[in-house]
Amino acid sequence: MNKAIKKVVIVGGGTAGWLTAGVIAAEHNSASELGLQITLIESPEVKSIGVGEGTWPTMRETLDKIGIDETDLFRECEASFKQGSKLCKWVTGEDDDYYYHPFVLPQGYTKTDLIFPWQKHREKIAFADAVSYQGRICEQGRAPKLISTPQYAGIANYAYHLDAVKLGHFLQKHCIEKLGVTHVVDHVTEINSTDDGDIASVTTKNNGAVVGDLFIDCSGLSSMLLGQHFNIPFISKKHILFNDTALAVQVPYSDDHSPIASHTISTAQSSGWIWDIGLPSRRGVGYVYSSEHTNEVAAEVELRDYIEASIGKVEADKLTVRKINFNPGHREKFWHKNCVAIGMSSGFLEPLEASALVLVELAAAKISREMPATRETMDIVSKRYNKQFLYRWERIIDFLKLHYILTKRTDSNYWRDNCNPETIPESLQELMALWKHTPPGPQDFHHVEEIFPSSSWQYILYGMGFETQESELSRKFINEELAHQFFTENEQLTQKYLSALPSNRELIDKIKQYGLHKI
Ligand SMILES: Cc1cc2nc3c(=O)[nH]c(=O)nc-3n(C[C@H](O)[C@H](O)[C@H](O)COP(=O)(O)OP(=O)(O)OC[C@H]3O[C@@H](n4cnc5c(N)ncnc54)[C@H](O)[C@@H]3O)c2cc1C
Question: Do the beta carbons of residue 58 and residue 361 sit within 8 Å?
Fold first, then answer.
């Protein structure tokens, strides 16, 4: 039990495996002989999932920490800026139905309540536009910064859209060449236990046994270590979040100068929604749907209709669609004995708010920060880890479900079923009851490092048309004058940024040509 933790073995070389390797190797000096040794085993027989193009703003800090140059990211990973999501047709399904979930916090967010003063004008201005400039910047296709803004800094908060396969290769090269990660390209065939049930080593087809002190399962949906070897049960969430299938396709632009959207466009369909992500050389588009509410043929028709609207039938007919099945849910726990699962091996929920990679980043950071010195303390660390990550999965489930339950759409069983109270977690029902009278705020989400701050819940709630009722109590803390100062400030910032910020494509081209300044 007093054995020092010196060797970490990661099984899986998808985005989860390489991000985890990078975070731990950078923090634990793996490039030096005295640092923690990290070996990543990647099967040549099992491809990584190859999707996952939308990220959360945390990705900037993660990449910066592991020593990646932001200019290289743009040059090598087909990166573009993402400033939030535009959710179309989620409320009424009509053509003019949309709202934004931007990344910037509302202007004056922690200073005063903005909800009640805004609600008086809700017919004239959308909540996101009243409190944030970012939706309007996105509508104009603007970038979140200037070429003179240093790398990883932003005028507006931002994340990235990326080519997932290119990101994997890019991280792999960086981890091997700069961070001292040992890469074994081989297929793991067996898992070997110690007398007390820990994993002692994994057997590979051509490189024999690879021993380790801590094993990180990044083997994707097969969950080879945590799921298959340890039999940690899978908790399905399909009764809450119905989507279980995706049809993905890469869509060309009509020409090299076509605008690149500065946000993910998520358009609701009859039985799910379509993501539309703009990369510099193509769009990544996909329909995430519930197989209980539609079938593959009908879903593909809807997807092709969507694509045809932008590139025409002739071009759309040439595209090949890839089908991906997934089971929404997560493992009962994530760290068991000396094995912790990160990425798809720990679970997956539909990609509506790009919550998968942010969970990978948070998991890698926590494991790295709290890396047990010896096996003796590992069970304490794992207990804390499991508690915190269960909380995170539950919050993500509530947050994703929030997008569905306020719809006014009744055009298909999918939308009707989504509003059935039996499909809404009790925790979310309780929050909705509280928010009838008090807007969401930090009091509702009290953990440090909440993935979705209370402002995100506000953007969805009021974007979907929810109304919080004023009461005698709430009236006491409304400061209309101060709120209106913030609305005015926001309007001024909107005009300023609209006139100063370049287009997304213009800035990306410039970054590729000249590079961003390092601080
Ligand atoms: C349709 C869809 C859209 C998504 N969109 C987003 C998004 O926009 N944003 C986001 O954050 N996330 C998104 N995700 C999730 C995201 O794709 C994943 O979280 C991310 O790619 C990490 O995957 P992974 O590394 O866990 O698994 P994988 O990419 O599947 O990698 C598994 C690795 O394990 C290896 N492996 C498997 N078996 C063995 C073995 N026996 N021996 C050795 N190695 C083995 C494989 O070779 C591979 O390298 C999406 C997922 C889906 C399904």
Answer: yes
From start to end of 399-510, where are the E strands? none
pTM of the model: 0.97
Determine the 3-state secondary structure of 287 from DSSP.
strand
DSSP characters over 187-233: -EEEEEE-TTS-EEEEEETTTEEEE-SEEEE--GGG-IIIIIIT-PP
Q: Are 18 and 62 in contact (CB under 8 A)?
A: no
Residue 75, phi-psi category: left (phi > 0), alpha (psi -120 to 50), beta (remainder): alpha
What is the whole-number distance in angstroms between the Cα of residue 237 and the centre of ligand 1? 19
Report the nearest-CA residue for atom 27 of ligand 1: 220
Confidence tier at 493 by pLDDT (50, 70, 90): very high
Summarize pLDDT for 431-460 with one digit per residue, the tens. Answer: 999 999 999 988 898 777 788 999 999 999
- Which atom in ligand 1 lies closest to the alpha carbon of residue 356? 11
- Alpha-carbon gap, residue 159 to 227, rounded angstroms: 31
Structure tokens at 37: 């040794």
Which strand ranges, in their side-by-side order, compose the sheet holding 329-331?
234-236, 329-331, 347-348
DSSP string, 35-55: S-EEEEEE-SSS-------B-
Looking at residue 514, its amino acid is Y
pLDDT at residue 377 tops 80: yes
Distance CA 519, CA 499 (A): 25
Q: Which two tokens stand for residue 303?
A: 């997807």
Q: How many Cβ atoms from other residues are within 10 Å of residue 404's Cβ? A: 24
Ligand 1 atom with minimal separation from the 164 CA? 21
Cα–chain center distance at 268:
18
CB 269 within 8 A of CB 304: no
449 CA → ligand 1 middle, Å: 24
Closest to 160 measured CA to CA, from 514, 519, 394, 507: 507
SS3 414: helix
* Residue 119 CB neighbour total at 10 angstroms: 18
| Ligand 1 proximity of 43 Cβ (cutoff 6 Å) | yes
340 lines ligand 1 (CB under 6 A): no
Ramachandran angles phi, psi of 40, nearest 5°? -115, 125
Torsion from C-alpha of 302, 305, 309, 315, nearest 10 degrees? 130
CA distance 439 to 265: 26
User: Residue 54 is encoded by which pair of tokens?
Assistant: 């939308």
Ligand 1 near 390 CB (within 6 A):
no
Q: Which residues contact 240 (CB under 8 A, 6 or more apart)?
A: 328, 397, 401, 423, 424, 425
346 by Cβ neighbours in 10 Å (0-12 / 13-18 / 19+) ranks as: buried
Candidates 105, 96, 102; CA nearest to 142 is: 102
Q: Residue 87 forms beta bridges with which residues?
A: 99, 266
Average pLDDT, the chain: 96
